[in-house]
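Data card: per-record layout.
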Amino acid sequence: MNFDDYLAIQNLLGRYAHVMDNGSRGLTSWQDLGLIFSKDAVFDFTGAGGGVAEGLDAIIGVMSNGEHPSGHHFTNPVIEVIDADHVTCLTKLISIEKNGQANTGHYFDHVIRTQEGWRVSNRTAIVYFATRKLG
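The structure for this 135-residue chain is written out next.
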């Protein structure tokens, strides 16, 4: 993996927060989640009080129908290379609820190189002190 790949993966992880915050405000299309997730991605929300969404369309459905925090923030990404086309990422999260309460947790991602670029193929969310259910 070269620096361009590393930077693309960093941007992929950060872009999710922007899509979520802008989507919640009607400033972007939830279809932009296709810039983050592969078509066959699995998003496991059980550690955040929700279920499991299988496939990009299901992920878009959960996100477009859900109540979301006002702010999504990601820090401390750890990218581990499996091979030239596969990495795992562990990222800390901070979410700010509409009532001002902050939650913390992490995402564990499997990220793959696709024809469209790097995409999350599997994400597991763990949220500590969650105040509501997702999904």
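Known properties of this structure: Residues 3-128 form a domain with the Nuclear Transport Factor 2; Chain: A, fold (CATH 3.10.450.50). The mean pLDDT is 91.

See the next section for split statistics.
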